[in-house]
């Protein structure tokens, strides 16, 4: 009833964390989000996404497939949260993530839940719902890793353009 992100399937990560944030969605606002029509969520202009489906899940049932930290091979090299943006259709195929361009409007059919995640290559909707990591702050992506540290990274260093299991991919569990 008091969800920060109403609608969609299950419970979303901002609502799961609301007991720690006081239930105020403004904590997720980013003044550098320039795509208000894309990220104009009910409680502000959020530009933070959860690694999906490797880390994040939608808590739609009693027994979701939760990822325990012990399943992550390199916690210091696995991005859990990052700056995100919808990527234009024209830039989706560009292999260099530094060249991805933020879209002014969402592509395809999206829901609110699609605006608070970043899809990885092993997700069936990676191309059709391209919400990806995005270098919004001085050409850097603000990230939070599985070991809890924060880091400003080049988008290329996250390796979202690399296949799963690539030693330089910092989005998979390997």
Key attributes of the depicted protein:
alpha+beta; two-stranded antiparallel ribbon; 5 helices; 6-stranded mixed sheet; 174 residues
Give a short synopsis of this structure:
The protein is α+β, with helices and mostly antiparallel strands and 174 residues long. 11% of the residues lie in helices and 18% in strands. The chain has one domain.
Count of DSSP H/I helices: 5
Q: Structural class given helices, strands, pairing? A: alpha+beta
Uncertain regions: pLDDT < 50 for 5+ in a row? Answer: none
What global shape is seen?
globular
Helix content: 10-25%
Q: What distance lies between the first and last C-alpha atoms, to the nearest angstrom?
A: 38 Å
The main β sheet shows up as:
6 strands, mixed
Order of helices and strands: HHHEEEEHEEEEH
Rg over C-alpha atoms, rounded to the nearest angstrom: 15 Å
The count of domains is 1
Strand-residue proportion: 15-25%
What does this structure look like?
It is built from 5 helices and 8 strands, in the order H-H-H-E-E-E-E-H-E-E-E-E-H. The protein is an alpha+beta fold and 174 residues long. Strand 7 (141-145) and strand 8 (150-153) form a beta hairpin. It is globular and about 40 Å long. The model has no long low-confidence stretch (mean pLDDT 83).
Topology readout:
Layout: H1 13-16, H2 18-21, H3 36-39, E1 40-41, E2 44-45, E3 48-52, E4 79-86, H4 89-92, E5 117-119, E6 131-133, E7 141-145, E8 150-153, H5 155-158
Parallel strand pairs: 3-5
Antiparallel strand pairs: 1-2, 3-4, 4-6, 4-7, 7-8
